[in-house]
């Protein structure tokens, strides 16, 4: 039987992406798609600000970078933040088996819904993730509210 993947090490890649985004002036949310054997398939970050494209979320960016996969059942979407509805929809559409999130304090997306539909969801409650996005929201509330689609 395979051992439990090292979720913290996987999260570190997503955090690296979030920090890159922050350095670019963007919203610090990063993600990475792994095979459960630990192979990194793709990594990405929210680039709403950088590219003026609201469809580039961390998860969708990592998913696209991973290219075509035969099956997603044995993949793990690792993201610094609870996935929004758009990204939760992606997880269900493609049958991604596991979601690992850095935190669900600054935002709660569709992770309970994913659990209800059989997706394994792990919340690492990572302090660095909570602080990084929390600081960003405090400094740029207007960009954040635009990102989550609230007035
Ligand atoms: Zn999203």
Brief rundown of the structure:
The chain is α/β, with parallel strands linked by helices. The protein has seven helices and five strands; from the N terminus they run H-E-E-H-H-E-H-E-H-E-H-H. 43% of the residues lie in helices and 17% in strands.
From the structure above, extract its key features:
single chain; 151 residues; alpha/beta; 7 helices; binds zinc ion; CMP_dCMP_dom
List the helices and strands and how they pair.
Layout: H1 7-23, E1 30-35, E2 40-45, H2 48-51, H3 58-65, E3 75-79, H4 85-94, E4 98-101, H5 111-116, E5 120-123, H6 127-139, H7 141-147
Parallel strand pairs: 3-4, 4-5
Antiparallel strand pairs: 1-2, 1-3
Helix pairs in contact: 6-7
Describe the fold and architecture:
Pathway: Pyrimidine metabolism. The chain has seven helices and five strands, in the order αββααβαβαβαα. The radius of gyration is 14 Å and the shape is globular. Helix content is 43%, strand content 17%. The chain is an alpha/beta fold and 151 residues long. Helix 6 (127-139) packs across helix 7 (141-147). The mean pLDDT is 96.
